[in-house]
Design goal:
Residues 13-152 form the Cullin N-terminal domain. GO terms for molecular function: ubiquitin protein ligase binding. This protein is an all-alpha fold. It has helices at 2-23, 30-46, 57-63, 66-79, 88-109, 111-123, 132-153. It has 7 helices and no strands. The protein is globular. The relative contact order is 0.14.
Length: 160
C-alpha cells in the first residue's frame, strides 16, 4: 500500500513541482515550496509509526521514484538537442545551467531523503546509494553529457 501511495505523492505533488523547478518555466513561490516539502516529509512521517523516521519503507518508496525520474528527464533534454551541431554548444550550456541550478533546489526540497534514508543506509555500510543531487548529476552525465560530448567535440565552438 505504501508503495502505491509513494507513487501517488510523487506523481501528483512532487514531480510537477520538480519539473517546474528544473525547467524554470515559472518561479516556485515560497508557499508552494513549503507545501511541497511538507507533503513529502509528512508522507515519510506517516510511515514512521513507533519507529524512527529513518527506519521506514516510505523513505525507500519515495526515493525509488527519483532515479527513473531523472533518467527520463535528462533523456528528454538529450532528445531535444538540436540536430545542427553548430547550435549544440549554446543549447548544452543553457540546459546545463538550468539543470544544475534547478538540481540544487530539488536537492534541498528532498533533503529529508538524503538525511533520513541515504545517510542511514550509508552508515550501515550499504553502497551505491547517492544523494538526490548525485542521482541527478549522474543521470545528466549518462544521458546528456556522454551522449552529446562526441558532437560537442566536433563543433567549432571554443576553437581559435
Amino acid at each position: 500500500m505504501a508503495q502505491g501511495e509513494a507513487q501517488e505523492v510523487w506523481e501528483t505533488d512532487l514531480k510537477p513541482n520538480i519539473i517546474q523547478i528544473l525547467t524554470g518555466s515559472e518561479p516556485l513561490t515560497y508557499a508552494t515550496y513549503s507545501t511541497v516539502y511538507s507533503t513529502g516529509l509528512n508522507f515519510i512521517l506517516k510511515g514512521k509509526g513507533k519507529r524512527k523516521i529513518d527506519n521506514n519503507d516510505n523513505c525507500k518508496y519515495l526515493y525509488a521514484q527519483v532515479e527513473p525520474f531523472f533518467a527520463e528527464y535528462t533523456g528528454s533534454i538529450c532528445a531535444a538537442a538540436p540536430s545542427n551541431d553548430s547550435a549544440l554548444p549554446a543549447y548544452y550550456d543553457v540546459e546545463w545551467d538550468r539543470f544544475s541550478g534547478g538540481t540544487s533546489i530539488v536537492d534541498r526540497l528532498l533533503d529529508y531523503l538524503n538525511k533520513h534514508y541515504v545517510s542511514r543506509l550509508r552508515a550501515e555500510g550499504k553502497t551505491g546509494l547517492q544523494t538526490i543531487r548525485n542521482v541527478a548529476f549522474n543521470s545528466w552525465k549518462t544521458n546528456v553529457f556522454d551522449a552529446l560530448s562526441p558532437r560537442l567535440e566536433n563543433t567549432d565552438a571554443g576553437k581559435p
